[in-house]
Amino acid sequence: MAFFPGVDKIEFEGKNSTNPFAFKFYNPNEPFEKTTLRDYLRFSVAFWHTFNGNGQDMFGSPAFIRPWDNAKTSLDKALMKVDALVEFCEKLGVNYFCFHDRDIAPEGKTLRETNAILDKVVDYLKARMKESGLKLLWGTANLFGHPRYAHGAATSCSADVFAYAAAQVKKAIEITKELNGDGYVFWGGREGYTTLLNTDMQLELDNLARFLRMAADYADEIGFKGQLLIEPKPMEPTKHQYDYDVATATAFLRKYGLEKHFKFNVEVNHATLAGHTFNHELRYARINDMLGSIDANQGDLFLGWDTDQFPTNLYITTLGMYEIIKNGGIKPGGLNFDAKIRRESLDINDLFIAHIAGMDSFALGLKAAKELINSGFDKFVEEKYSSFNQGIGKKIVEGNTSFNDLERYILDKESILLPSGSQEYLETLLNRAILLAGAK
């Protein structure tokens, strides 16, 4: 059965194309940094939004009815969605996908029954992946959707819920390994609090650390070689989540001695909710050697929730890709489109148009980031801090001075010269880089 009969293989047609079902800037075979755009960007389709998304929002019921929604049983529906995934990725030319355990298979009455259903779907998915060449970027477990997780999972006040979550993650890591996933993500959807009036914060943080340590130990035990990733988010659905942003989560990992086991899956919209820019979160992760992967989307600055829109803002993609280039690439991570089409986008083929727009935006952003680096942008920053390369600045950096030394040095100085920040000039360089990349 063809789920997208009206769409052929998406091809690169160049910047002058007006075909909505063609790439304008993403040429998968175009050389970049000793590889190709396809291998450098490592685009991934998010199973949950793409095949489970039904247009429902907090104010309205589902708006989409997909072909797989007419399946006779829940298992049939799960298998049909796997077929839809393979067809979609083949036509889009994307090599990777990501999923939560409950995205691909429904729950049974017990965890044992649920795992048996999951195994059937995974067996089918594994076979389809083998014949299509589709790869798993990362897997994860849904520890937030079921009512049992009302108080959280690893941070729940119920020891039984903690145990259930541990068993669920154990199984999710196992199937991620079975499917040769490049990573495994922990997203603390409800690992936080709504009010401190009923919260033992110390116990919850300690238990979260215990949970993550056991997960890392089990991954080692079964020989899972993929990267373990934490995805920061400040709020929603809780008032405050313990992995608020990259800085907060880094401090948490270091406090509990877990920093060698985990890196970060940074999401654009989560950065927005935390009051940061995407490139801020990427840079904080990069300079701490903690950058692992990306959830590629964008938010709406006028809306205070996780809107998960497809990325089209070229300033966001350019500055984000600047950090990726400085990081030496994102592999074994990738750019996963954790994005959903709008409730009003009723045509199933809008799924293709949205992904094409996102892929073009990041491809153009990558090229613009390279133009920005070539423009001398990095040299300007180096010159701004050049006082630390010589004299008293060099002594400060090398740790060869003290407050007494610095006082003697500065006490009789009559003037201090400061370099200009030249923000406006740098912003023109950014504009120029985007325009030049788009013109090529």
Structure explained in plain terms:
- Helices cover 46% and strands 11% of the residues.
- The protein has 16 helices and 14 strands.
- An 8-stranded parallel beta barrel has the order 5-6-7-8-10-12-13-14, surrounded by 4 helices. A two-stranded parallel sheet has the order 1-2. Strands 3-4 form a two-stranded antiparallel ribbon.
- Helix 10 runs parallel beside helix 11.
- The longest helix has 25 residues.
Biggest sheet details: 8 strands, parallel, barrel
Mean pLDDT: 97
Instruction: List SSEs in N-to-C order.
Output: EEEEHEHHEHHEHEEHEEHEHHEHEHHHHH
Q: List the total number of helices.
A: 16
- Low-confidence stretches are none
**Which range best describes the helical content: under 10%, 10-25%, 25-40%, 40-55%, 55-70% or over 70%?**
40-55%
Topology, number of strands? 14
Spatial order of the strands forming the largest sheet: 5-6-7-8-10-12-13-14
Radius of gyration: 24 Å
Which structural class fits the helix and strand makeup?
alpha/beta
Tell me the overall shape. Answer: globular
For the termini, the CA-CA separation is 40 Å
How would you classify the quaternary structure? single chain
Proportion of residues in β-strands: 5-15%
